[in-house]
Automatic annotation (TrEMBL):
GO terms for biological process: coenzyme A biosynthetic process. The gene is pnk-4. Homodimer. Interacts with PKM. Keywords: ATP-binding, Coenzyme A biosynthesis, Hydrolase, Manganese, Metal-binding, Nickel, Nitration, Nucleotide-binding. SUPFAM superfamilies: Actin-like ATPase domain (SSF53067), AF1104-like (SSF111321). GO terms for molecular function: ATP binding; hydrolase activity; metal ion binding. Residues 424-740 form the Damage-control phosphatase ARMT1-like metal-binding domain. It catalyses: (R)-4'-phosphopantetheine + H2O = (R)-pantetheine + phosphate; (R)-4'-phosphopantetheine sulfonate + H2O = (R)-pantetheine sulfonate + phosphate; (R)-4'-phospho-S-sulfopantetheine + H2O = (R)-S-sulfopantetheine + phosphate. This is 4'-phosphopantetheine phosphatase.
Length: 755
């Protein structure tokens, strides 16, 4: 059957085909993994409500998996639609016996030369790359009935050393001690191939998915011997659990009435498959534990086709590792381990591998086995995993105490009520977001294209929310920041890079015009009042500015009301002290001691110009250096680094003191590397880290509900911190024990860290 007859939408499956510049093939026993990159031109929303192509492009990596019968179809598509590949050298991972035949087909169809890449190099490099870049890439799996995933995000320092247990045809154990530093410690001939072969030999079942389904329905009691069968009630005398496995298939040798393979009914087949699986996985786990002890390694990752996020496999490995190590060793798994070898091989000859790459959820059709594979049609199944390059290097924020700790105040993976509340909020706002998207480009000449892109955004985002409702671990963590970031990704994918750009510009202009009056009032107060009164006033102004938030439903109602929302109205909404979390007195006592203050800003307009700037001006007047940092990319009405830099001349024109501070670099601007209304300080722009190290930052100020409450509320820093926000949702107010417009002004001392 040819491509036309199959009616496969390859343009949806293979993204950005005309721009593909580099490709790698990882041919396994039953599937082929294809990893390729493309450079995608970016568009830009203008203040005139049009959309134009920018001069920038974005590098992306796509990983897809196809079954062998479908490989010729997709290879032909690459050959016909990827002109930039012709005459180049592409990478090929040497793993399977049928490689020679596939290699020749690839050479002929694509008109390329092949470069062989070692599979072990690819496996290790791909694993380390995913751990270093992708949030919540690794996880543990509970071995009780809860079937709970616990996700972790690691960094380049904390991930090493680790053991990599690759369960494929056999078992290989690799010790990874650093970037490009690894050695094979050993392995076993008893692995995935043994399980498949013995299962087919004993039961006649040949499909691995059927094997796993049957194992879930099996019981080990028919074939296995347990401690209780040997010692009976005396097992407790030896401090042994009577339910522990003593001998796999031991009952067959004891002369008991056990069916032989030729007489198996369906249940006996299920039981035999389960006993086989447990026998092999228990032995692999014991090997992993012994080698981890010898290597002094505390983290072990299991991967390979036998694992693939299969609950029964992960549960068994997790239990066995816990048992052999007496609770010291936990089994870890990867969300995207299916692509580690191909991805690592691809990166070996790719120029931007050392930059920061993020998971690109809107470009993925399915993520491993966390989301049901979306078939393009019956008989053709595939998966797509996408990444996008940020264009910079990233690392954990230098002043974080726990550089792998979760920033989220509430873990939605564990709190179903919180997760459902946020999904409901996002569902209710989808129509408004779609209207904002259309309005932001309403002067585009192609109205039909504009409408179609907006409808595509709405449809894709609804599908994403539906997936999270059904599989809340589909994207790893499903917290507020993750869902908001996915929404921004889908908007950008549909050509809506900044749907609030016109509103932000208008509010910035209004706020700049009002800034001299606000500063004059502060100066007047400074001449007549005491120092503490002035500091409290600018702190209240900081909080008042934070009220202006297009992401908060109650505030949007106020801004859209007939009377609107003025800065003075916002100040009036800031409650009198004592506040819900009131650290003002503590902050006042130390505020003159700070020599280098870093401020993470939230919204543009009134928040930044009338809230942050007057607050920063007082610290600057006290002699502090103030470093203001904003998001690298747009999110809601949050200020971006580009907008912040463009506003600097306006600030200088508004106030002579600000002009002096900016010109002398006492007031500085830097980007965070973030693109969400929340903040994950585990990955920030290298410029930010270099700046705080250079100027010995001793106070971190985090402003805004997303950055200071939904995230980072419980995060500890090595220096003092101030977390300031006004609560603008009733749900969060209830969670924190406050009410609407309650104030959080949380001043905390730094935590000493010893290396």
């Amino acid at each position: 059957m040819d491509i036309a007859q199959r009616k496969i939408d390859f343009h949806r499956l293979v993204r950005d085909a005309p721009m593909i510049t580099h490709i790698c093939f990882d041919a396994c026993s039953k599937t082929v993994k294809i990893v390729y990159s493309s450079s995608v031109p970016l568009s830009h929303t203008t203040l005139e409500c049009t959309r134009i192509l920018s001069k920038q492009s974005e590098d992306r990596i796509y990983c897809i998996q196809v079954q062998y019968p479908d490989f010729p179809l997709i290879l032909n598509f690459f050959g016909e639609n990827c002109p930039l590949l012709k005459g180049t050298t592409v990478d090929f991972v040497v793993t399977a016996s049928q490689n020679a035949e596939i290699e020749e087909v690839i050479r002929k169809v694509l008109d390329v030369e092949l470069r062989h890449v070692d599979a072990f190099n690819g496996l290790v490099n791909g694993t380390s790359f995913l751990l270093r870049n992708i949030e919540a890439e690794c996880f543990t799996y509970s071995f009780d009935e809860s079937q709970e995933y616990e996700f972790q995000t690691l960094n380049n320092d904390s991930m090493f050393p680790y053991l990599l247990i690759n369960i494929r045809t056999g078992v290989s154990v690799v010790l990874v001690e650093g970037e490009n530093q690894f050695k094979r410690l050993g392995g076993s001939s008893i692995g995935g191939g043994s399980f498949l072969g013995l299962t087919e030999l004993i039961t006649g079942v040949s499909d691995i998915e059927e094997m796993m389904d049957r194992a879930l329905q099996g019981s080990p009691d028919e074939f296995d011997i347990f401690i209780r069968d040997i010692y009976g009630d005396r097992a407790s005398n030896f401090n042994m659990d009577p339910h522990l496995l003593a001998a796999s298939f031991g009952r067959v040798t004891r002369g008991e009435t056990v069916r032989r393979a030729e007489n198996f009914d369906e249940q006996s087949k299920n039981n035999a498959i389960l006993s086989l699986l447990r026998m092999i996985l228990y032995n692999v786990s014991q090997l992993a534990y012994m080698l981890s002890e010898i290597s002094n390694v505390k983290r072990v990752f299991f991967n390979g086709f036998l694992v693939r996020n299969r609950p029964i496999v992960m549960k068994t490995l997790s239990f066995a590792c816990n048992y052999w190590s007496s609770g010291k060793l936990r089994a870890y798994f990867l969300r995207h381990e299916n692509y580690t070898t191909g991805l690592g091989a691809f990166l070996e000859n790719f120029p931007n591998a050392d930059l920061y790459w993020k998971e690109y959820c809107s470009g993925s059709t399915a993520l491993g086995r966390f989301v049901p594979v979306e078939p393009l049609e019956t008989g053709f199944k595939t998966q797509t995993f996408a990444l996008r390059c940020t264009g910079f290097k990233a690392a954990p924020f230098a002043l974080l105490v726990d550089q792998d700790g979760k920033p989220d105040t509430i873990d939605f993976n564990k709190d179903e009520e919180a997760r459902n509340f946020w999904i409901e909020i996002l569902d209710k706002t989808i129509n408004d977001i779609t209207k904002f998207a259309i309005a932001s480009q309403e002067n585009c000449s192609n109205k039909e294209d504009l409408t179609n892109r907006a409808e595509d955004f709405q449809s894709d985002f609804v599908k994403t929310m539906d997936i999270i409702k059904e599989h809340h671990v589909a994207y790893g963590n499903s917290n507020a920041r993750n869902m908001l970031e996915v929404r921004e990704q889908i908007l950008q994918e549909k050509g809506f890079d900044d749907i609030y750009v016109q509103k932000k510009h208008a509010e910035n202009c209004t706020a700049i015009a009002e800034l001299p009056r606000v500063l004059a009032k502060i100066d007047e107060l400074k001449n007549t009042g005491d120092e503490k009164t002035v500091l409290e006033y600018v702190s209240r102004g900081l909080l008042a500015g934070n009220v202006f938030d297009w992401g908060a439903k109650e505030v949007v109602k106020m801004m859209n009301s007939e009377s609107g929302l003025t800065f003075q109205t916002a100040i009036d909404h800031v409650e009198n002290r004592p506040w819900l979390f009131d650290g003002f007195d503590s902050f006042y006592k130390k505020h003159k001691e700070y020599k280098s203050v870093l401020i993470f800003v939230d919204n543009s307009g009134f928040d930044y110009i009338l809230g942050i700037i007057p607050f920063a001006r007082e610290l600057l007047r006290n002699g502090s250096r103030v470093i203001i940092c904003a998001n690298t990319s747009p999110a809601l009405n949050d200020l971006t680094y580009r907008e912040m830099v463009e506003l600097a001349p306006e600030l200088k024109n508004a106030d002579s003191d600000l002009a002096k501070f900016i010109d002398s670099n006492q007031m500085m601007f830097v980007q965070t590397g973030q693109e969400s209304p929340c903040m994950d300080a585990r990955r920030v722009h290298q410029d930010l880290n270099e700046t705080v190290k250079k100027f010995n930052t001793d106070l971190v100020v985090i402003e805004g509900m997303g950055r200071a409450l939904h995230t980072n509320f419980n995060v500890q820093f090595k220096c003092d911190s101030l977390k300031a926000a006004v609560i603008k949702t009733q749900w969060l107010a209830d969670r924190l024990g406050g009410k609407m417009f309650s104030v959080v002004f949380k001043h905390e001392h730094g935590v000493s860290v010893t290396n």
